[in-house]
Amino acid sequence: MLGTWCLALVASAVAVAHASYHCLPGAVELAERKNLKNPQGESYPLGIWVPDWAAGYAVSAIAHVLIEEMLGYNVVDKGPGPATPDAFYALAGCETPTVINRRGCSDLMSIYSHLSLEGWTTAYQSSWDDVQRDYPATAPLNLGAMGYVGRVSAFLTSKLQEEAYYSEGLTLEYYRSYNVSWTNPSKYFDNITAIDTSRLKRCNETRTQVHAAMQQYWEAQLISEVLFADILDSVG
């Protein structure tokens, strides 16, 4: 029943949006909304660079509605981009911000992406610093936090963790326990053939070729190992 009710609610909202062109009471009507205009006289809508993950789509959609209906500006979604640094380059005006080894930046860039939300900026400080240094005239500004924090990790259900731990003392939440000389952790995971290879990228298309990024991952791994060792010592 809950699923049916939710689907009905969404369908109703879509129907209302198509009928009246707005979601909020007191919204600026479509015909009255404005574009941005640059010093050369070019007119274009405000661009929201959308991060390619669920929370990124959600907050971008909210901002889209608020800016159009409450502030009265036309808005267009840009992207999406699979990583936070893509937003840095998009907002700086680079033409191909998602192409890691060729971002399409130059000294004469026009900016069509003006806002991006849900960026994990603290994890990409080196990339942020690069954009600020290389493109100071158009580099984006960090306007602060969204009001919440997030963490990145592998997800393992508690049921799976408990099964591995109570049946053979295997702690799946710690990757260094994945030692095939002692146990067979693979039986708790899908086979590698379950991976949709069409969704994979070549190494030279990913951040694995960025030295600063790999150094950051390596240092984070070392820190996590030290913290885990401290935890084991404290409970040992």
From TrEMBL:
Source species of the chain: Cladocopium goreaui
Signal sequence segment: 1-19
Name of the featured protein: Bifunctional lysine-specific demethylase and histidyl-hydroxylase NO66
UniProtKB keywords: Signal
Keyword Signal part of the UniProt annotation: yes
